[in-house]
């Protein structure tokens, strides 16, 4: 999602060299819908990365999804590895979620008053998560992060936050900030409409760089409310951090009276039920959730210790509210999904399956001497068109490598595989991806890699 920011403003026009041997799928209906949509929405979409600005063609309009499959308006069928950008860890149209949601919506859609469903989802989460004691439900990841930042500022009485280049935290003003020219500087806004004064409160530093971190704390002593990092940065490629580095974030924040926020909107309930906190065994001060927590419905949440959460209104002075927060239908979807995630070996099976999938592709690419690195953690994977072994910071990614992805994406669509329409986006495997479909997907990926490297030189 991070790079959709750049792409939304400077996207490529569609110059389509002819497809590989396979030929292009029919996209007539989708193209028709897209033409219409352009009359209604900026860029024809309601979220920028959907606009296919960094791949060939125009957006596919989706008709329905079931299990690991998607069908578009032209009747093309795809094995889906985008999974609505992460929420659908059980795949599309899961019967248990559908049943629970259907039952709940028959009683009304929203009351603006508490329901027992909120208790049920909170209990399911808090009883099985050692890292938070209290939680507040909101309606998106953006809202969760925005509220977590406010809580950190309210608690510390400080204004500045440190974020990392290559991490996306939603589109709130404080976080639409990119690195300035120096190593440790105030950020520059990455969107028009964000006041400079806001960007001045956000310090942007590179990932995996202890010196930059220490310099930031030395330069802004006693001004830093919080350091925020994605559990595993997955919005600008997959930038897997070393445990020791994450521990250093914990140590330096503690030593300076600042809070550590894990933005687990992707990693929460994805790496395991307790997300990245358990993955590293590091206790953050505040954790944000989204995506999976709502089972495909719009839900976000932030959680922390009882001591910290006491500051949130109406108990405390940090104001945060929402007309549709804790919406019963959304809670029902979350309960049904998270209940499935608690079944034994859920994550072991999912993660093993994904690892085997990624390893097989990596072996194929290696045997063919293709310059592609298949990164994987849990059920997240990412194709990096590079021969670098470690990709830990945004600067480790060569923007020119995205040309490879562009061809790859088209070849995959032509072979019935749906991945996010940008090379910076990660893929997700869901519990609904069976061995058979993963085998099919592998073959399609092998063929697509062959096409990608047919014209481009191997190393
Ligand atoms: C998706 C995402 C967000 C924003 O969530 P929305 O529901 O799109 O507002 C925030 N942080 C991270 C890490 C995300 O991946």
Automatic annotation (TrEMBL):
Cofactor: pyridoxal 5'-phosphate
Keyword Transmembrane helix: no
Reactions the enzyme catalyzes: (S)-4-amino-5-oxopentanoate = 5-aminolevulinate
MF (Gene Ontology): glutamate-1-semialdehyde 2,1-aminomutase activity; pyridoxal phosphate binding; transaminase activity
SUPFAM superfamilies, alphabetized: PLP-dependent transferases (SSF53383)
Higher taxonomy: Bacteria, Pseudomonadati, Bacteroidota, Sphingobacteriia, Sphingobacteriales
Family: Belongs to the class-III pyridoxal-phosphate-dependent aminotransferase family. HemL subfamily.
Biased segments, Basic and acidic residues type: 13-27
GO cellular component, one term: cytoplasm
UniProt GO BP: protoporphyrinogen IX biosynthetic process
EC id: 5.4.3.8
Compartments reported by the entry: Cytoplasm
Major subcellular site: cytoplasm
InterPro entries associated with the record: 4pyrrol_synth_GluAld_NH2Trfase, Aminotrans_3, Aminotrans_3_PPA_site, PyrdxlP-dep_Trfase, PyrdxlP-dep_Trfase_major, PyrdxlP-dep_Trfase_small
Protein's name according to its UniProt entry: Glutamate-1-semialdehyde 2,1-aminomutase
